[in-house]
Amino acid sequence: MGTKALSGRENWQEAGGGKADAAEKKFYEIMTSAFKGTEFRIRSKPREFKHIYEKISLTPQVIEAIYNPVGETWTHGITPDYAIDNVETNKTLYIEVKRQDGWVENKPRKAGRGNAHERSCKYFTPGLLKTLRSKGGLGDDVIPFWIVLQGDIARDPKRVREIYCWFEGIEDHFFLWSDGADNKAVVKHFNEKLKKLLL
Fold first, then answer.
1. Which of 10, 34, 65, 89 lies 20 to 30 Å (CA to CA) from residue 18?
2. With 70 as the cut, is the pLDDT of residue 169 above it?
3. What pLDDT is recorded for position 105?
4. What do you get for the CA distance between the two ends of the chain, in Å?
């Protein structure tokens, strides 16, 4: 990819990043308001997984085969967008809010480019499922996260089909927030489908 193309891509990412930040902030404000006077609280950027990869033990054979800098330290982990805690049961559900454009009426098919929804798939991996379940106190049979997708992606005919395929059988753990002006819908989804996991 040439310099000119890369320059355009950076501008697209900056614009998308600003919209994503606004979506995350709105979600936080809505849930903070909904949780007033309850046993639930929402935390922004929970730090409990900030170092999880640093602690992964590798076999001597793997260590020998990779670059293994001696004396170097670094921070290596994940930071979900939010955590919803029940302060009475000490159970926690982790949240990713992804905002992405999509292919909808009056937009070209290429408007659906982007991989924000794909980046959330790391939460399906066996190691992260085990880690989030353990820290969240949710048990071995509970999906320990909730993905909230906002923007045109929530109406994109291609992306919505991908999402329903990936979440088959656990549809409660994603929410297509297609109408960002509807503040009640996201709270209703939590109350009806996920709140019980934290009780």
1. 34
2. yes
3. 75
4. 51
What's the rounded Cα separation, in Å, for the pair 126 and 129?
5
Q: What pLDDT, in 10s, does the model give residues 143-162?
A: 999 999 998 888 889 889 99
Burial class of 146 by CB neighbour count within 10 A (0 to 12, 13 to 18, 19+): buried
pLDDT at 103 over 80: no
Residue 191: DSSP 8-state: I
Q: List the strands of the sheet with 174-177, edge to edge.
A: 40-44, 82-86, 91-99, 145-150, 174-177
- DSSP-based three-state secondary structure for 4: helix
Q: Give the domain range for residue 175.
A: 3-198
Quick one: tokens of 160? 């919505």
Looking at the structure of the chain, the number of domains it has is 1
pLDDT at site 19: 60
Task: List the Cα angle 73/78/83 in 5-degree steps.
Answer: 135
- Is the Cβ–Cβ distance between 89 and 137 less than 8 Å? yes
